[in-house]
Amino acid sequence: MESLNLPGFAHKVKQVNGKPHIFDIIRRKFVTLTPEEWVRQHFIHLLITHYGYPKSLFAVETGLQYNTLAKRTDIMVLSNNALPFLLVECKAPFVSVTDATFAQISRYNFTLQPQYLAVTNGMAHYCFRAVNGQIHFMDDFPKYRDFNS
Predict the structure, then answer these.
(1) Which of 15, 19, 63, 104 could serve as a FRET partner for 133 with CA atoms 20 to 30 Å apart?
(2) Counting beta carbons within 10 angstroms of the beta carbon of residue 1, is it exposed (0 to 12), middle (13 to 18) or buried (19 or more)?
(3) Strand, coil or helix: what is 70?
(4) 117: burial class by Cβ within 10 Å (0-12, 13-18, 19+)?
(5) DSSP structural state of residue 34
(6) pLDDT at position 149, please?
(7) Given this structure, which CATH class describes domain 35-138?
(8) Per-10-residue mean pLDDT for the chain, 149 residues long?
(9) Predicted TM-score (pTM) of this structure
(10) Alpha carbon of 73 to those of 3, 12, 58, 139, 149: distances in Å?
């Protein structure tokens, strides 16, 4: 897999039916290693290792209903009271983060209403808050201790 603009981590990869799979510490199983999954796993480890989020607050690829469409969130971190706190949309490294990416996570925001939203393709990362229809970009991602102190 390609190098990302994210810290590395000790990952476990194995072949299943001739395809690479990576161990997901949140789902506690091996999942197909796609470029998007490579980004997702790096970002999960970043949030745990560098920002202090407990694994128990993560939900990965969970379903949600938007109008009549079934959608999946890439990474959702819950607050201690089980409300969405941080929602992350992951793209493959070769997929540019565009207005369409922000529109996609904004649709999820409409349904889930987390405090923070983030998009990443492993190379570029953006974190922001949506307040009263206004987007406020952050210089960094919120640390776990900051929202639970």
Answers:
(1) 63
(2) middle
(3) strand
(4) buried
(5) -
(6) 45
(7) alpha beta
(8) 90 95 95 96 96 93 59 84 90 92 80 88 92 85 73
(9) 0.89
(10) 24, 23, 11, 23, 26
